[in-house]
């Protein structure tokens, strides 16, 4: 085997193993379990919220979150709240990219295993830098897309 092909094979294998390690699945498991089409069975809601709103989510049942305006969030401690509900047949997990209308880079969130037919939302919370919020009357817009989604 020529030196070029040995180098190419080594580079290819290292790329496969490095990318597989990102979500702790081997290459074959990732290919077999990957199912982005299943996203239609998962309801995803994302909000920028205050500490009081986060407390309500974790202390009360069936809380409905109302997105505050930028002016209401400006200068306060804020959090990214991502709510997921799987109403499909399979258990699922994956990585969700959340992108704000004001910023260019998405924030990735690992969504843990969700059982099928969930009755309530599973919640994930991340602290945010308050300097990302402008002081205006607009409402934050958060767009979420699955980077990777797996079903079992």
How would you concisely characterize the structure shown here?
It contains four helices and six strands; from the N terminus they run H-H-E-H-H-E-E-E-E-E. The longest helix has 19 residues, at 3-21. With 152 residues, it is of the alpha+beta class.
Features of the shown structure:
152 residues; three-stranded antiparallel sheet; 34% strand
Provide an overview of this structure.
With 152 residues, the chain is an alpha+beta fold. It contains four helices and six strands. It has helices at residues 3-21, 27-33, 51-59, 70-73, and strands at residues 42-50, 78-86, 92-100, 107-114, 122-128, 142-151. The strands form two sheets. It has a three-stranded antiparallel β-sheet. A hairpin with a 6-residue loop joins strand 3 and strand 4 (107-114). The chain is globular. The model is unreliable at 17-22 (pLDDT under 50).
Radius of gyration: 19 Å
Unreliable segments of 5+ consecutive residues? 17-22
Instruction: Calculate the terminal CA-CA distance, rounded to whole Å.
Output: 40 Å
Q: Helical percent range?
A: 25-40%
Using the alpha-carbon principal axes, give the shape: globular
Beta-sheet strand percentage? 25-35%
Mean pLDDT figure:
86
Strand order of the largest sheet: 1-2-5
DSSP strand tally: 6
Succession of helices and strands: HHEHHEEEEE
Structural class: alpha+beta
Give the number of helices.
4
Outline the biggest β-sheet. 3 strands, antiparallel
């Amino acid at each position: 085997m020529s030196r070029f092909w040995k180098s190419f094979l080594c580079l290819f294998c290292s790329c496969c193993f490095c990318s597989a390690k990102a979500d702790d699945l081997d290459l074959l498991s990732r290919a077999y379990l990957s199912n982005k089409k299943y996203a239609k069975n998962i309801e995803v809601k994302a909000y920028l919220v205050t500490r009081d709103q986060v407390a309500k989510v974790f202390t009360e049942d069936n809380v409905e979150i109302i997105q505050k305006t930028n002016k209401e969030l400006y200068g306060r401690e804020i959090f990214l709240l991502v709510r997921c509900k799987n109403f499909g047949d399979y258990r699922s997990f994956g990585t969700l990219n959340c992108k704000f209308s004001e910023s260019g880079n998405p924030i990735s969130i690992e969504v843990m295993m969700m059982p099928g037919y969930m009755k309530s939302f599973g919640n994930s919370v991340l602290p945010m830098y308050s300097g990302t919020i402008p002081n205006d009357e607009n409402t934050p817009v958060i767009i979420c897309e699955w980077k990777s989604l797996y079903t079992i």
